[in-house]
Amino acid sequence: MHLVLLFLFIFAINTAAATEDSALGVGLGFAVAGVEDPAGSTGNDQVFVPGLFYRGAWARDLDYAVGARYASGELTPTPTEIGQAFSHLELSLALHKRLRLLREFKTWVGGGVALARDTFETRQTVDGDGFLKDRYDNRESTGANVLLEVTAQYRTQNNHDWAVQLQHQEPLGDRVRYSGVNLMWLF
Predict the structure, then answer these.
(1) Is 132 exposed, middle or buried (0-12, 13-18, 19+ CB in 10 A)?
(2) Residue 124 is part of which domain span?
(3) Which of 21, 32, 139, 151 has a Cα-to-Cα distance from 186 of 20 to 30 A?
(4) How many domains does the chain have?
(5) Residue 17 per-residue DSSP state
(6) What global pTM score does this model have?
(7) What is the sign, positive or negative, of the torsion defined by CA atoms of 37, 84, 41, 171?
């Protein structure tokens, strides 16, 4: 619900939303996520990352994107890695430069920042037999992530765009990091 309200807010404040050089969109990503945990190392989990997006033209061959994404997963505890359930909610802003490689596709590379809110629950390790070894307090964290993106965008005959995006997010602190691929529909 928070993502929908955020998306509607972005749409309402941007008067350029009806121009040809701007688009609203939805996407679904698949990522490998891990946690930078202050108490020790963790494993990785494969997660789905739904999102809402707005892309707008900044200047010739430059655009910006505002996005909201959500991910959640569960890391398995081991004797050497802290297992935990995590959730990640973010609002991102990125600037992209177009690379004129192919006529059929718009290729964009860029980066930006994301403000993320992460929660971590059921933090624990287990012994070699799978029994509880150590338990850690639940925690929450809010902060910035640095993001890098490469996007290939294709316009269909009905003026909708499909895009495939590779993205990596690295937290500036002890939070969720992930790398993945997104499929987006921009309208």
Answers:
(1) exposed
(2) 2-186
(3) 32
(4) 1
(5) G
(6) 0.85
(7) negative
